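User: Could you check the structure of this?
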Amino acid sequence: MKINAFADVSLRALMVLAAAPDGNLLTTQNIADAVGTPYNHVSKAMAKLRGLGLIDVERGRTGGSRLSAAGSRATVGHILRQLDTRSDAAECVAPSGACPLINECKLRAALARAREAFYRELDSVVVAELPSSSQMAPVFELIGLRPGL
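Assistant: Sure, the predicted structure tokens are below.
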């Protein structure tokens, strides 16, 4: 299975927030720099994560984002289900429109079961438990945030 770019950016942003020293607020620009993704993409991801209740946002000059209580418990499987906008695992289209095999297609059902098995496997993986301090130290140094600040 492959996740889309939006889900990838969203998961990486959550990992950075989970590892932020002492729950520091991070700006969207900090997060974009940390994950090496354009600000606009991260901004959209942050808006969605806020809407899902996975992050808390404080506005203002000293504002930023932090992982919410729900975000600190969220699993990769749960998050990917929320971010997956595809209604079907297969495109089921042909140049002339819908696939002529679409009626009673067993492949679509099998692919849907495989996608759910993929998510189910990730239901035990808590995003906040993924980042390690050795992994995140150079990232935080890159954005000018030192542990203990």
